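Recap from last week: sequence in, structure out.
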Amino acid sequence: MRKIIFWTTVFCVSAGVSAEAGERRPVGYDDIASGRLAAKSVSGLRPMRDGEHYTTLNRGQVLRWRYADGALVDTLFRMPEGFPRVESYTMSDDESKVLLATGRVPIYRHSSLADYYVYDRPTGALRPLSPNGKQQEATLSPDGTKAAFVRDNDLYVVDLGSGGERRITHDGERGRIINGIPDWVYEEEYSFSRAYEWAPGSDAIAFCRFDESGVREYSMNTFRGRLYPENYDFKYPKAGETNSVVEVKVYRFDGDSTLTVDLDSGRDSTDIYVPRIEWAAAGGGEGPMLAVHWLNRLQNHYRLLLASPVTGASTVLYEERNPKYVERIDDRTVVFLPDGQGFVVKSERDGWMHLYRYDRQGRLLNRITEGEWEVTALYGIDSRSGRVYYQSTEGSPLRRRVYSIGLNGRGKRQLSPAGEEGTHDGVFGPGYRYWIDSFSDTRTPTTVTLRRTADGRTVRVLEENGTLRRRIEAEYLLPRKEFFTFTTPEGVTLNGYWLKPADFDSTRRYPVLMTQYSGPGSQQVADRWGWSWEAALVREGILVACVDGRGTGFRGEEFRKCTYGNLGGLEVQDQIAAARYIGSLPYVDPARIGIYGWSFGGFMALNCILKGNDVFALAVAVAPVTSWRYYDTIYTELYNGLPQENAAGYDDNSPIFFADRLRGKLLLAHGTGDDNVHVQNSFEMIERLVKAGKSFEMAIYPDENHGMGSSRNHLLRRAIEFIATGL
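Predicted structure tokens:
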């Protein structure tokens, strides 16, 4: 669920009143919804293996550029006339073939079906990957001779020379067996849509097999264009319920055979998670091994298993336990050294997320980074120079810098420019001679710069958003964004920001909308560029405030995990405390404070207007969780444990039990096609409010998903009207 932050994030800019202020106007919702204030980046950027070039996707063409002088070298693929729009591309390891995706049809958050085409660069041949219908998660083999994809829950391989198609699993069946792609809850919570990996030698494929036969179904009515509604049924494991049984298998081309990997799970043999699989160089002259990331059901015990792709036997290479939970496993939790001489782990064992170096036998060699700040991205490791490239919060949890450091923990260098504070993010190419720096802050739209790694010198600017900057200067009076901190009655210091009009008058008393997400590990109070709908409220004479309370991220393990087992407890206390602080300010009308949130933020908005009914006059709750018993296993149990063992943690902060406390104005909105936070949550809330005799407004959007799709603009315009007239 933490990925929902996308829908609720607010990052606006500061702007004083210039001499031309009379010619400019405040920002309205149409300005934001139309994208006129959105910053451009560089689309489809891919570093090439020679370390001297990179590619981009531009209007269906794959272009090759030279790092050193920025010259356009050539066009690797030019879209023929009448060819479908190319939406994404990948290249084989030898870069001889380009895999092009067209005609995507979304399934869930990350997954989609598509028509894939293979372009052979040496011959210029372009042909469909398969003539037998759309494919899912197609990839090229490392040697460029084959491709794999999933269709109807089975894994297929295509020989690119002959065009022959081979089905390598035969038991795929909707609602029962899934091969090579994740089930719903894995895709949503572990953020991946492909569950297979090519062996480096292209002689094998490792894949996950999910048996979801025992998972209960959730049914959604679908309405549009139908005389009689139809059900859409899919497997959705709710907290405390049965999960899919996951296995890891290896298909070998040499014997047309499949083996099962020993997951070394003991008594947890089936009630486990496998959030990632990957191939790793073993070192010492051995062939590549399969690395399996293993978690127990409560996600407080993590193992890294190293398995033989020939026998399936596995050993535990690394292990970690935590009294609460191990932070989310992703592609960069463990990074194997390219030379096979060990690996680097991200761990918060000392209370902060840092990097640790291990040898290939799993023995700790040294810690690489340390301090009361967190590593937020591990970009890569250059074995030749022995340097690690990463992003961190060093300096401030509100900002990001890019660094390199030796594998031995020495020789740290800041690669992002000193004094250019905000948010830096990097892309490093093979060889690490160059890196691409994307930078923004609250006043600066995204600037994409090519830099030399050795000295940080700018080679050239790839995108500076000059048109956007000139448009802002000529047309808009943007809100002022001001960061602030305050201390709660419990003595906890929290970070926040204000959005105020350019002509802010401190002698007035303004209504305030508090916007928040508040979910575990999330962050909204950050120094970076971006716009969301709440900024349009400033034009209506409403101030916007945001506070990241306890449980949010990038301030260390203790701050983030103090909400464990009691979701919504401390988080709601902090938002109520923030509202009281805001209401005490001389320029705020304490009787006109509202709160808004989407998803976890909607859960929070409901709780705040119910438990803080003497503080909040209004709330907008979109797609809210109203009982964590209704939400999925992986997310909910990670932060709240099992409902069978922690009933109070599920019920004490469930807004359905406090409906009788509603005093203010409430707008409750949900899509009936929300596969993530089911509309059941809002229907249950509605029933409780009706029984309590409470008045409220609701907006139900038929067939819309968690992001509200084509109805999003309607909803947000309604929210602006509701807030502007209600505060």
